[in-house]
Amino acid sequence: MQLPLQRRPLPEPGLVDLWVSDLAAFPLAGKPGSPGQREQQQILKFRQRFLLRLLLGSYLDCPGKAVRFDRGPTGKPELIPALAAGGLRFNLSHSGDWLVVAVARHSAVGVDIERRRELPRAAALAQRFLSPAEARTVAALAEPARSECFLNLWSRREALVKARGGSVVSSLGDLELDPVDGQPRRLPADWPGAPEWTLRDPSLPAGLVGAVAVAEPGWSVLTHVLELGVP
């Protein structure tokens, strides 16, 4: 799919639309690397907000500039009530120039992506942020599998927490994943529907790992690539 975006139907029940975009191909003035670091970050944030509004506007059948956001009880960004009446829910994540937006209907959704890379302190990070069983699994591996395992488990945690709202740190003690298949073993008792959540590995471009979480069981994820170049 390319710009300009056409009107889209709301996602079907039980399905997450996952949009993947390379913001380096954004057809606006300014190229990554030419401005200073601070300006690069400002340009990147502008591109993320601009594309998010356009994408949600295509589902809501309204211009991107008409899309407005609010904060939910847990601080999670969401559509204002007038726009959320149809049940549209979303979440986004970015890593480098890559942006992903997860869109669902009538259920909380969370997404996280991470750039594949070697982490010299992967074992120490796992011991600090993951469950003991997960940390042992990470530490037992050699590179590059060690970093890959940590990033996979971390992205799954992030996706779950972002679907719920809040921070990973606040959920560390009550959140445990299976170190082999990455599925939830234990979720905080105050999470709605715990532990019956969906956690999926979406199809992503090479060089990225990620996860999508939905606060209901049995959901599927359909990945779309959004081409940002001029048609």
Automatic annotation (TrEMBL):
Residues 48-103 form the 4'-phosphopantetheinyl transferase N-terminal domain. One of its GO terms (biological process) is lysine biosynthetic process via aminoadipic acid. InterPro entries: 4-PPantetheinyl_Trfase_dom (IPR008278), 4-PPantetheinyl_Trfase_dom_sf (IPR037143), AASDHPPT_N (IPR055066), P-Pant_transferase_sf (IPR050559). GO terms for cellular component: cytosol. Signal peptide: none annotated. Residues 108-183 form the 4'-phosphopantetheinyl transferase domain. The keyword Transferase applies. Keywords: Transferase. It holds the Pfam family AASDHPPT_N. One of its GO terms (molecular function) is holo-[acyl-carrier-protein] synthase activity. Belongs to the P-Pant transferase superfamily. Gsp/Sfp/HetI/AcpT family. PANTHER family: L-AMINOADIPATE-SEMIALDEHYDE DEHYDROGENASE-PHOSPHOPANTETHEINYL TRANSFERASE (PTHR12215:SF10), PHOSPHOPANTETHEINE TRANSFERASE (PTHR12215). This is 4'-phosphopantetheinyl transferase superfamily protein. It comes from Wenzhouxiangella limi. The lineage of its organism: Bacteria, Pseudomonadati, Pseudomonadota, Gammaproteobacteria, Chromatiales.
